[in-house]
Amino acid sequence: MMKKLTKHMLLALGVAALLLLGIGGTTAQASTTTFQHKSTTVKWHKGTPKSVRGKFKTKHYGADLMMETKIRAKSIWFWGSGMPVQKGYNVHYKKTRHNHYVIRYDAHASGMFKGGKKLKMSVVKVGKKSIKVFGYSNVFHKY
To answer: What percent of the chain has pLDDT over 90?
Structure first.
């Protein structure tokens, strides 16, 4: 009986020593539960999403200023008062959240606008017939 007891105690001490030294793939640290979200890579799709296509403009604000944007299936168009027009082609989009999209496009230079490749425009759908673009607080209404 005493031999069995000492064997079990020695075995328990050996396991405890292995745990403390970190041998055997486990550690003696306090266990904490962590939840990891499944990382999903958002895919770029060609064109623009159907839910935000159309012609939109803001109401007049400030010193009688306004902005307009046209989002078509394969191109975008953006204009703000006193600024050159941005015409985007080679358009792709990805959905980042519910009613939130990032539209990537290429554009040629026009006036002060330098143009470029892989420019990004954020679009947030607000209600059924309105959007917000580029992070502006102004709401663009469909017309």
So the answer is: 69
44-67 pLDDT, tens per residue?
999 999 999 999 999 999 999 999
Rounded to 5 degrees, φ, ψ at 55 are: -105, 130
Q: Provide the β-strand partners of residue 110.
A: 113
- CA 109 to CA 107: how far, in whole Å? 7
DSSP secondary structure, 23-58, as one string: TTS---SPP-----PPP-PPPPEES--GGG-EEEEP
Mean of the per-residue pLDDT values for the chain? 85
Closest CA to 86 of 75, 102, 73: 75
> In terms of Cα–Cα distance, which of 19, 74, 80, 14 is closest to 49?
74
Considering the entire predicted model, what is its pTM? 0.69
